[in-house]
Amino acid sequence: MIRTENLCKRYGKFEAVHDLNLDVRPGTVFGFIGENGAGKTTTLSILATLMLPTSGRAFIGSAEVTSEPATVRRLIGYMPDVFGVYDDLTVREYLGFYGTAYEVPSTVMEARIQELLQMVNLDERADAYVNALSRGMQQRLGLARCLMHDPPVLILDEPASGLDPRSRIEMREIIKGLRGQGKTILISSHILPELADMCDEIGIIKRGELVACASVEVVTARANGQRQMCLEVLENGDSLAEWVNRHPLVTDIVASNEQKVELLFAGDDLDQADFIRQLLHEGYLLTSFHEVGGSLEELFLHLTKEEHRLDQETAAAKQKI
């Protein structure tokens, strides 16, 4: 439903997007993850027909974004990370204005507005002025605006940006509801745990290139090629942490206290079994052992760790000059 082929965008010598190949299946919620400046917004702007690519192609359905922009705009609802509102309009008038712009038939306009207001939990604020709404309410109103023409595809750029925890939860539940309606959703965000809960697939973009792309389960399982293990003992957890840290297949201690140690382990099943045997042989009273699933945050930090190191070394070198 959303596809790019070797998509590139250059600004002079700077390449914001490099040979990007995406394939988002119909009915999928696809999470687009990347740091500021990684190329997320540039990619979404091209897909929304707001920016021309330097090379490559992009499609919404069968419509190509550069040659068929009018068709693409009828297929998508685009929500930028920052959008303007008309302060002198009520919520109902605001949606009506965009409904007219989207050529929603007048016979269904009022019913569509009421349906969307209920979906985004703003039906009780229908006659309030837009500028009187909280940030979270304005974000939900912006999402309702995207849905006025009932598009099959939603492109959402940081929809939870700047929201408090309650508002983020509300936005997440609305998006999960839209997934249940069969919408295809491309969503960029920095709030990684929420993407893991909400998305079917994720893509991680780094310096304009897609460095990981798969289902949430597959990408998380492959993060770093390691297992995160949790050991619980009756006592001597601090001593256990010291012993564990000397083991050649333990790459890091995630957390530890008197009765629990969490660690990253680089071995296979046989190595893991031998590790537990050694632990028991050392006399530690193990009460629980289990693997902890990796998170998108861990994967993201792992994939961007080298970039941060290089940036810091570059900055330090510049200071010496």
Structural account:
The chain has helices spanning 40-47, 69-75, 91-101, 106-119, 135-146, 165-180, 192-198, 216-222, 237-245, 269-281, 296-320, and strands at 2-11, 14-20, 23-24, 29-33, 55-60, 63-64, 76-79, 153-157, 184-188, 201-206, 209-215, 227-233, 250-256, 260-265, 286-292. By secondary structure, it is an alpha/beta fold. The strands form 3 sheets. A 6-stranded mixed β-sheet has the order 7-8-9-4-10-11, sandwiched between helices. The protein starts with a strand and ends with a helix. The model has no long low-confidence stretch (mean pLDDT 85).
Provide keyphrases for this structure:
single chain; 321 residues; alpha/beta; 5-stranded antiparallel sheet; elongated
Sequence-ordered SSE layout with sheet pairings:
Layout: E1 2-11, E2 14-20, E3 23-24, E4 29-33, H1 40-47, E5 55-60, E6 63-64, H2 69-75, E7 76-79, H3 91-101, H4 106-119, H5 135-146, E8 153-157, H6 165-180, E9 184-188, H7 192-198, E10 201-206, E11 209-215, H8 216-222, E12 227-233, H9 237-245, E13 250-256, E14 260-265, H10 269-281, E15 286-292, H11 296-320
Parallel strand pairs: 4-9, 4-10, 7-8, 8-9
Antiparallel strand pairs: 1-2, 1-3, 1-5, 5-6, 10-11, 12-14, 12-15, 13-14
